């Protein structure tokens, strides 16, 4: 990981608001760079199944996070000063995440994986969103941001996920997780701003329906992508299916562990900051005290 003496950029969000987003929340833009010149084992996560799952996730991030940025920015007009600052910080963090996952995806390709098929399918899926009401794109973003926040919490709270991983790759995922927790309420607060004229029932109905749709597509596509990557390792059939299922639901079991947080999304009046898990940020932020040179 390359380091410089530049300090992380902090955006303090202390304007009082009626949302559960903490008044003293700092969204820190840590302009860090990883995996430049790094070489990794093909199974950098310690086994084929964890490697396939995380490689499949990472392959979707560059285009996916660009989609998130545009979906949120499309609804920033008229936002109060606090939310406007949140959106700016969100955009800066997501731009850095995109850059770092492009670098990591190249590393995965150098290790012998073909992930271009995943990227191409994401591109084709996003093309289908063109022309539809922008509020639907925001609802999708809100649901997927809940997924990233749930997994971020789990990755930081449970070291088992990366205990056998390449050190620098593990640092990248933890850095990403810290920032996903910090900005986990931005898309949701933007949604509340954009739909302030809606009834509570209409808000709840659309976000709930969209979460169900997103969940089905998320697991169907990530499973397919992981199976494709496992096949590139010669792991197919029941061995591939059972191995990935066991990884996701038994040990370390990220899907099983995030289920309660997923279910909470459907609660009327839910907000991502109903669960304040900033202690996880504090636990790891000492590793990220130096920011790197500005993005190229």
Automatic annotation (TrEMBL):
Keywords: Hydrolase
GO molecular function terms attached to this record: hydrolase activity
InterPro entries cross-referenced by the UniProt entry: UCP07580
Name of the protein in question: Metal-dependent hydrolase
Source organism of the structure: Pontixanthobacter gangjinensis
């Amino acid at each position: 990981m390359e380091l410089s003496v530049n300090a992380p950029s902090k955006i303090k969000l202390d304007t009082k608001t009626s949302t559960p987003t903490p008044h003293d929340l700092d969204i820190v833009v840590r302009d860090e760079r990883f995996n430049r010149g790094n070489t990794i084992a093909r199974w950098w996560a310690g086994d084929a199944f964890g490697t396939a799952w995380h490689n499949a996730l990472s392959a979707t991030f560059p285009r996916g996070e660009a989609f998130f940025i545009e979906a949120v920015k499309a609804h920033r007009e008229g936002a109060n000063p606090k939310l406007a600052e949140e959106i700016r910080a969100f955009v800066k963090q997501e731009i850095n995440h995109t850059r770092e996952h492009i670098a990591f995806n190249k590393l995965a390709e150098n290790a012998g994986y073909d992930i271009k098929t995943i990227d191409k399918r994401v591109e084709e899926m996003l093309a289908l969103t063109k022309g539809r009401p922008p509020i639907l794109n925001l609802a999708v973003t809100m649901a997927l941001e809940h997924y990233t926040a749930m997994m971020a919490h789990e990755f930081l709270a449970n070291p088992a996920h990366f205990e056998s991983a390449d050190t620098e790759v593990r640092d990248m995922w933890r850095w990403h997780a810290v920032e996903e927790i910090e900005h986990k309420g931005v898309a949701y607060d933007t949604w509340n701003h954009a739909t302030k004229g809606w009834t509570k029932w209409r808000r709840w109905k659309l976000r709930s329906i969209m979460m169900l749709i997103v969940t089905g597509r998320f697991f169907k596509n990530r499973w397919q992508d992981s199976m494709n990557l496992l096949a590139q390792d010669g792991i197919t059939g029941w061995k591939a299916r059972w191995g990935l299922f066991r990884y996701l639901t038994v040990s370390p079991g990220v899907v099983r562990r995030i289920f309660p947080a997923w279910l909470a999304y459907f609660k009327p009046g839910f907000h991502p900051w109903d669960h304040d898990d900033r202690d996880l940020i504090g636990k790891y932020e000492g590793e990220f005290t130096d920011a790197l040179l500005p993005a190229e």
